[in-house]
Amino acid sequence: MRTIEHIYIDGRFVAPHGRELFDLHNPATGEVIGRVRLGDADDVDAAVAAAKRALPAMARTGKAERLQMLEAMQAAMHSHIDELREAVLDEYGAPVSRSSWMADYAAAAIQVATHTLKDYPLEREIGSARVVMAPVGIVGLITPWNSNAGFICNKLAYAIAAGCTAVIKPSEMSALQTDVVLRALHEAGLPAGVYNLVNGHGADVGAAIAAHPDVAKISFTGSTAVGKSIVRASADSLKRVTLELGGKSPTIILDDADLDAVIPGVIEAGFMNSGQACIAGTRVLVSETRRAEFEARLKSAIETQVKVGDPRDPATTVGPMVSQTQWARVQRYIRIGQEEGARLLTGGEGRPDGLTGYFVRPTVFTDVGNDMKIAREEIFGPVLSILSYRNEDDAVAIANDTTYGLSAYVFGEPVHAGRIAARLDSGRVVINGAAHEPLAPFGGMKQSGLGRENGPFGLESYLEPKTLLGAHAA
Ligand code: NAD
Fold this sequence. Notes:
This protein is of the alpha/beta class and 474 residues long.
């Protein structure tokens, strides 16, 4: 069993001022597999001070120097992919296909940021003015457990592309993954203080970063409730904030959709990352006329094709919930759904037979009303709700009747599906299972977030336009 004793400040691994040791669990067994020593608000002060010392030189770097840094980071992360996949499997329990994707994503995200910076004009003429895109300053980067390594690399890469320095607060539940990322990034040899990292609880380390007067911007990925507290904490120093928050995404099945293609798409959208995905399509909308056929086919596919179990078994499609707390939360929602009068189509409370870790039964409710808690609140587990619609206006109204707006899925004849997609209040809409585009903006409408990440929109969130009048190009 490993104990991670260090945080990272000013280019060095150092012991934190905080003394608390926090247990890390393997969610597939419940076993304690490691411990991490957590930092505190004093460590945040030291990390911000290091980022502040490094900022003037970093802000003066040009595109070529930043590209060199990004290329070194990407190569270093790439050489640790296998180690990262093992950490994701042990600590998080994502099925091996997903864990491998997550390990690859850490390096791939840096590559996309590199590509974005290459193409992005950091200076341009607008009328008689010269407009320079200046780094926003010191940024606080706060990540969730459900893709900790990927979010650290993604956020840090865009911060560096913009010429910022950073203080990172990773998920305290993902310290093994964080440790792999830190050792890789250290090998990349960036100047001391450009990035600093403090492990710790959200309520002390995260909150201290959000309130720190020297931090100019927060990029946060996590729950909507914590996102709101970050906006409040940021107000005093008018920090810029990018918030990537929760979702309750609709999957609309149009009457001209081919159910043979739809069923695997609905399962993939709903159960990706074992249901622990912000973009999971958890409200499944089908017309009243096709509902019976759809229900029968979805039930049969889940009961015969979805395999819950050991994340290391390549046949597994749904792994455990990340923690006992998350397991209990999913159980509570399954109870609530029954109390609210929804009908269980498959699954239910308890663990699948023979499994002892934090596993839940893939569950589908039908006869769900959009006013029920299971249709309104983010459950963050493999639990889907089927809602039926009378006509397409009704489908769009139900899909948009939510406080969230992160993602949506539409299945149907492509032109028809495109017309419905245009009417959805959602940061992105995926038509017929189309592939992700990493350069396109990613983020949510309504209470799913503020601002966008990725590609040029993501880079601009770390930049401030500065207008020079009477200046000549160097
Ligand atoms: P969380 O909000 O509990 O924690 C996220 C991070 O914030 C953690 O590092 C945590 O320690 C920290 N934190 C907690 N309280 C804080 C505070 N008061 N101040 C500052 N930081 C604080 O979320 P989670 O449980 O780790 O992750 C799951 C949530 O993240 C889900 O709601 C999911 O939808 C969301 N999420 C969103 C996206 C997206 O891109 N929109 C992606 C992944 C996850």
